[in-house]
Amino acid sequence: MRRAAVVMPVRTPVGKFGGSLRTVPVEDLAATVVREVARRSGIDPERIDDICFAQAYANSETPCIGRWAGLHAGLPVGVPGFHTDRRCGGGLQAIVTAAMMVQTATADAVLAGGVESMSNIEFYSTSARWGARSGTQPLYDRLDRGRERSQPEARFGPISGMVQTAENLAAQFGISRDSADEYAARSHQRAAAAWQAGHFDGEVVTVTVPPHGRSPASLVARDEGIRADSTAAALADLPPLQPSGTVTAGNSSQQNDAAAACLIVADDKLDVLGLEPIGYLIGWASTGCEPAAMGLGPVSAVAKLFERTGMTWDKVDLVELNEAFAVQVLAVLAGWGWNEPDKLNVNGSGISLGHPIGATGARMLATGLHELNRRGGRYLLVTMCIGGGQGMAALFESA
């Protein structure tokens, strides 16, 4: 079987919810990274066999985002595209799906990634098409509704949202508010230090924001959600999101706008296409868990991945574990029985950089592979929990 090489992973800056990227449509974010991957890699666009792109909050404004993004980016009309979704794991799923395509020789080069513009997720009605005889008709916020309906209520009971699942883990593992705030502050401090050291320079693509209203056109080149001065003491002043809870806005991931992408190429076609890999996919796994404890998904996913690949913790050089919540990260570390801070989210993650759902997995891969090569390491583990009760994990090796 052919090896799947990762070529030219890039990402946009991660915009705050309602921030500087609010007026940039999701198709523009996606096209920005699609266009840049093609430009930086130097691949002949005609040789791109497909585009696999994730978006968790899709709608009919840009149906089948992979195809839409390719056309919008100016790629040849003959390049097809499709859309995939595994919620928080969607971006990583797009990459491993592309890898399976090249491994099985159904494609030689696939452009893969993910995108989310959470600032532009709409409100919607489920009753407007045929009307109603009387009564108030609800208009749902797709963001909140997607979290509330992440599992069949008839089987699992109601879950108010992802915050409730995080509080369940805090209670199960005895995680304190202080430890959650300390972890969150560290995430911000690491992300700020990474920008200061220039560690993101090679992966971030500047986004052009078109003029709107009285605001002229502008450029966005840096992540917006990082608070360099964050401390555990300052975070301790924030109220919990649920009464007597541990989870706050400060120790949770953000809602964001961003896109990330890369090329996935068969190793025996790299020279033919004139491409230089940054890494290779070794293996991946996905698992299910109880929806009410969705944050533990990486525990079983990594166990399954290690069993399949023969990998052990002592061989892993870097770990990118998505920070949906600080308590979720701490619970996963306890479940793994592993905790090496100098290898974990060394440049920050969802709490500091943000969590643009469909783009997150591809963003983590871009950040992780660039850092792995900067350090001269060999193995990178990328893993995340997934709303609805899933986990996903993938192992990459440096080129």
Automatic annotation (TrEMBL):
It is an enzyme of class 2 (transferase). Its EC number is 2.3.1.9. GO terms for cellular component: cytosol. Pfam families: Thiolase_C, Thiolase_N. GO terms for molecular function: acetyl-CoA C-acetyltransferase activity. Residues 276-397 form the Thiolase C-terminal domain. Residues 5-266 form the Thiolase N-terminal domain. Coiled coil: none annotated. InterPro entries: Thiolase (IPR002155), Thiolase-like (IPR016039), Thiolase_C (IPR020617), Thiolase_N (IPR020616). The active site is at C88, H355, C385. Keywords: Acyltransferase, Transferase. SUPFAM superfamilies: Thiolase-like. Transmembrane segments: none annotated. Belongs to the thiolase-like superfamily. Thiolase family. NCBIfam families: AcCoA-C-Actrans, PRK06205.1. This is Probable acetyl-CoA acetyltransferase. It comes from Mycolicibacterium sphagni.
